Amino acid sequence: MKKILLLVLSSALLLTACDEQPRTVSSRLIILGFDGMDPNLAQKWMDDGSLPNFSKLAASGEFHSLQTSNPPQSPVAWSDFATGTKPGDHGIYDFLSRDPATYGPAFSISESIPPETVLPLFGMELPLDDGAIINRRQGTPFWSSIEENGGASTVLRVPVTFPPDPIQRMLAGMGVPDLLGTQGTYTLYTTRPTSPASSASTRAVRVRPDKAGLIETVLEGPAHPLKPDAPALNVSLTIKPDGKNVIVELDGETVNLTSGEWSDWMTVKFPFLGFASVSGIVRLNLVSSYPRVQLYVSPIHIDPREPVVPLSSPPEYAAELAEEIGLYHTIGMPEETWSLNEGHLSDSAYLEMIRTMLEEREAMFFGALDKQDSDLVVGVFVQTDRVSHMFYRGIDEQHALYPDTDEEARQAIHWIYMEADRILGETMARMGPDDRLIVLSDHGFAPFRWAVNLNRWLTDEGLLVMKDDATTSGVGFTGVDWARSKAYAIGLNSVFINRSGREAQGIVNEAEADQIKRRIMRQLPELVDQNNGLKIVSEVFDGAELYPNNANGDAPDLVIGYNPGYRASWQTTLGGTPSKLVEVNARKWSGDHCMDPSAVPGILFTSFRPDKPLREIIDIARYARLEGNTQQ
Ligand SMILES: [Zn+2]
Question: pTM of the predicted model, to two decimals?
């Protein structure tokens, strides 16, 4: 967070970008992405007539499933999309990579490099160089190639575009942090006793009303930018009863909320040094009113009017958008899936939040189309993916929560597909006769009924060993004896060998690594779930074959292709080893796609017939580059 001050200063300097003459483009390539749109569900709802615009588009050009990335995870697939290359070349292999020095999980998409030199002064640490935030995706995205050839690109909210590429217009997507520097940490104020937070993205704060019901507390913000040991910056927060409603005063701004209701955006300015401040925006949801008050405060979004990190290209575009369409969610993954999973938000409040996000994204995307100044316009709506993750329990009769779902939950995925259809219709209405449209998803969807503790299996096979004869470990591999361990699972699909010379306490040489890989590739697909006789894994892929170039040096040794229904448990993703191999997934996060890629293809529609069919997600970049070049 030391870099905040510098970024505030440097983004102010960058606001002097030059004004170019507006140009009008009559022959555009428009790419509309719906993250996680599944070909089977789309076909079903096209057949029953509820997706008329998709049906119309399908009749005009190509319409078929689209081969996704391996593994079929959004950051990987959208990086395949952007660069037209596979993970071995673009270097994004999984949501999470691991630090071979510590075995701890690391966010694979972007990386902060702190300033190298710091001047200690009056108890503060003044950074003397910039530090940097880098996008870990390697290679050249096709929108940059098009600009290099004289075209102009507008790219909105494509995952793995933070920090934004220097093109005509870009708003960064997945990868943008919140003001705390995390991928989205929310706060729940509650008068009930709080259980320990189940993840780092949850802050549960126990509050006690006085006799009049008044609750006085603070919202904690980022760390002090210049004093690492000082308490976090904060702003005041008071809650008091108002009949059935509550009145919340946050950093001097007052809002009256009824149960279940979202507030508009509220601005929070975290002061430091008496004259400076860092600005964020939040929305509040009153989960329940007095006497058992629960107030939900969204993650603190970077204020697009005063961004402390670059959210857009050019830097002032984020603020211009706020001027045009009002404040909007800026975090890379703002759909607060974890709070719904934890029961800290209701289904209705979650869907209401999704509605708000659709409105924001539509306003941006249609605004960009209406400008008519780009040869390429790309917009990705990820809400299809997030609703599918959280409401698959409404369409999967075998899911543990299916009996508890109400009509709203059962209709949620159908609803978001119909919203996608509406957005498609409005896009088509904005197209000129020479415009071309590609609509795609990065992967499809499948049920997530059972969570697999893959480190349990590795431990049972003697490949992962605990200290002191323990049989389980917490997340972050606490208690693992690396001097005796040969393989470990982390992230959603990755397994690594504990290689000597690579991992800090590696013990496996090249020849043995190969033997261990062959053994796992042979044994895992034979593994049977004792609860139901089903096979858990369809195929284990060899990382060396999938990713020969091993960009970033992060390639996993093995990639696990789970059968539909199964997915790595949350503990596995963070390097935990619980006692059971398979657990019933009784959480609202009930659909997924981090499985065998052949089970979860994406979908593709085009308004035209390309010379060469677009079969795989990597084909889009090739087509867009050709198209961009031939138009010049
Ligand atoms: Zn997803």
Answer: 0.92
